[in-house]
Protein 1
Amino acid sequence: MSNSAVDATLTIRAGVERLAWRRLKLTVLAGPDDSVCVDTDNKSVRIGTEPGNTLQLADETVSRFHVEITGTRQGIRVRDLDSTNGTWLAGNVRVGEAVVPAGSVLYIGRTQVRIDALAGSSTPELSDRDRFGDMIGSSPEMRALFALLERVAPSDETVLITGETGTGKEVCARAIIAASVRAAGPVVVVDCGAIAPGVIERELFGHVRGAYTGAVADAPGAF
């Protein structure tokens, strides 16, 4: 038996871990965007009037972010995003959150959208690591997130992180910066929600003396 010291013990992962979800197809059956069709490999998709949605609608009776749809192994999960006019199944059942079968038709505002499950599934790349920065997790979901962040961090792309309060958005942002080429530079945090719309430009980019009433001196902005 060797007397050499062992610095660490490697963990053997049991079986082959795999994260997969159903691919979805959204088809507008009625409304201002009639016949619009979207195929997606994303796990979760959103429908609403804002540009950030997977399916952006022109229907004025649809909320900015109206409904979220997720393809799972159990079925297609539908979650209303506190919309003004609600999300309805088959036109008469209001949905807060429910698992529905493929082929279901959602009524949102004056628009009808059919949800179909496409053949096959979407399988994202998983990181070999169980941490990224200060984020730690060994589940397939976390390792899929780490794989995405490992690709994003070295790039010069703009990153938008969304999520509920307390889910770790700031921790994620700092981890991306720490793994980027900007790691040695300063991190400037700006709470845009606490800045009035009329002053946000000068708070971010600064101003020169006389730029507006009360600007008695030059002032640098956050950036």
Protein 2
Amino acid sequence: MGIEDEIIKNKAPPLSVSRTTWYTSLGPNGKEIISRDAWGGGVYKEEYEAVSPCAYATLPQIRLEPILKRRALELNPEGICYNTEVTEVKEESDWVVVGVIDKVNSEPRKVEARYVIGADGGRGHGLDIIVAPILERMEIDDRSILGTI
């Protein structure tokens, strides 16, 4: 997509996201219960590097969306759909066909895209539309995996 350099430049520092820790409380008297390496840090570094051509980066959605929007506008200024709801995603060989409904005039239409990015602030809207076909193709029936994708 041509955005890796900008993401790497804006990512959270590795030391701040390479471990996860559980505490009894977030207050001043909270005690650490356990801490472990996470998200490509420590013992997971080589594992993460082996499965992706890109470096692992943690970037909050509020920082990622402007990068994605700038790149989308560079590539296709007329191709951004505002005030729309995704109703279906159909994977083709090298692209996807996305069914959308315009929320202003309730008009349904189809949009072809190379990428689908679900940026809904972690609310999970439309997750089944995008992920369920992938799980079906992988012959995974347990929808509880949706929480870890």
